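User: structure tokens for this one?
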Amino acid sequence: MNGGLDAVGPPEKLSATHDLTDFDSGEPLLDDWLRRRALHNEASGSSRTYVVCQGKNVVGYYTLAVGAAVHAIAPGRVRRNMPHPLPVMVLGRLAVDRRRQHRGIGTGMLRDAVLRTLQAAEIAGIRAILVHAISVSVKRFYEACGFISSPIDPLTVMITVAEAEKMLDKTDRT
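Assistant:
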């Protein structure tokens, strides 16, 4: 994802061969989930976890799961003319090791999550990407990328698949 001595590889599916021991995002809830639940969820098919590594050491991860959202949680332009419930891709978690934050890894993983969502949307209906942000600062990160707030849940943000694709087009040109 970036060059130099601190280079990390592209996102790949989590496996038992990845080293999670030193991962520290600064958010214990996210770190514990990665160590205790990610492989189980992968095996059960309830979510997919993608990791970014330096060697076999995980330095970032995100999860995707298909879901449905009630209309009330979605902003108007997301729910307009859509079935009940709304088909969504849930970006469940996204975290970067605190020693590697602010280097574009999180943005790169978000971009990868959008690309994977676009691929899934080619074979199944997905209206939007939904994120339940863990904090206001995390919500701001997503808003800076074009996500919009839920009218009823201040930490839930969404972006339509079409808007996410436009966001990728803009970043490709910059």
